[in-house]
Amino acid sequence: QVQLVESGGGLVQAGGSLRLSCAASGRSFSRYAVGWFRQAPGKEREFVAAINWSGGSVHYADSVTGRFSISRDNAKHTVYLQMNSLKPEDTAVYYCAAVYRYTIVVVSPGYDYWGQGTQVTVSS
Known about the structure:
Layout: E1 2-7, E2 10-13, E3 18-26, E4 33-39, E5 46-52, E6 58-60, E7 68-73, E8 78-83, E9 92-99, E10 113-114, E11 118-123
Parallel strand pairs: 2-11
Antiparallel strand pairs: 1-3, 3-8, 4-5, 4-9, 5-6, 7-8, 9-10, 9-11
């Protein structure tokens, strides 16, 4: 069982950068795969990025490849999402999610635990 808390969202102009954090509490943090998802009003939740908590393997959605970077800090039990070259289309509530497994998961039903979300708004 794990609890997740996202932070770092806010308002940024197009072309700017933002760094989101997902802080985890609970036991065996290193044994959870972690993913980032986002959901805009009226749209389905979509996959953004994922990382193996142990091993460092990563995967990105095509829409963010080359602009976003997911990373981890095991000492702080935190996963980050560095977002660069932001576009208005990136505006959404961003959620982190975790599941007790080592391999990367890219679909929402594959995750058991979710954070409360953090709003990212990119102005044009």
